[in-house]
Design a protein that fits this description.
Layout (H helix, E strand, L loop, with lengths): L4 H4 L10 E4 L4 H13 L4 E7 L6 H15 L3 E5 L10 H19 L8 E3 L4 H13 L4 H4 L5 E4 L2 E4 L7 H11 L15 H16 L3 H19 L1
Length: 231
């Protein structure tokens, strides 16, 4: 059997160890946590951020605890208050609270591991949504560059090794490996802009322009290079 793409995507990647995976319990972070544990045994921890924004949040937390116990991966649970301030979107409030929690947990260390790198599971479809959002807001080259694959902040390395993988590829591998995950019901809520792009805009573009995801990713890479030159 060929090596799963969720594992081969890490080939050649040499993060500064130990590392912590931002683990929600969803398909993408489940794949990334499993793959990192396979590639870097004994050097991987997980951080789960409980936003407390929905009744099922405690179920997500329990699932993550059970899965990490099964895999023998140390887990740090972080509970945050992600309620938006006046004029702030729920997405932005949750994102800011999540990154702050990840940073604090990593800097504090997890189960004797002095974390050096925090790894995030955003993938190619997330990158498409990010660039489409940037286009809708009239962003310049920095915004059109989309999500960075790697950067440094607060003395930590941050990485997104799955930006070249599609969501369907990740889920296909998980099913083939018999690995379960949980689905966040808010991912289908049309009140969130990203969900509307995912459900309505991206499928229409894929039908009209079958290669649009690949070409959009190439354009965002060009924009990233331009942003670096401008800086």
């Amino acid at each position: 059997m060929a090596e799963p793409r969720i594992l081969s995507a890490l080939a050649g990647w040499q993060p500064t160890l130990p590392l912590a995976v931002a683990y929600s319990g969803g398909a993408d972070s489940t794949a990334l946590l499993w793959a990192c544990a396979q590639r870097f045994p004994g050097q991987v921890a997980a951080i789960h951020v409980n936003h407390g924004l929905q009744a099922s949040a405690t179920d997500f937390e329990a699932h993550c605890e059970q899965q990490c116990a099964l895999w023998g991966i140390p887990l740090q649970i972080c509970t945050v208050a992600a309620h938006p301030a006046p004029g702030q979107s729920p997405e932005d409030a949750a994102r800011i609270a999540r990154y702050q929690a990840l940073e604090r947990a990593a800097l504090a260390g997890i189960a004797q591991l002095a974390i050096k790198t925090v790894v995030l599971a955003q993938h190619a479809d997330d990158q498409v949504e990010t660039v489409l959002l940037a286009l809708s807001r009239g962003a310049g080259v920095a915004g059109l560059a989309g999500m960075r694959p790697a950067w440094q902040r607060a003395g930590l390395h941050w990485a997104r090794p799955y930006l070249g993988l599609a969501s369907q590829q990740i889920r296909d591998d998980l099913r083939r490996l018999g690995l379960g995950w949980i689905d966040d019901p808010t991912n289908a809520d049309p009140a969130f802009t990203r969900n509307r792009i995912r459900a309505q805009v991206a499928p229409a573009l894929a039908t009209a322009l079958p290669q649009f995801a690949t070409t959009l990713a190439r354009s965002s890479a060009h924009a990233a290079q331009a942003a670096v030159l401008l800086d």
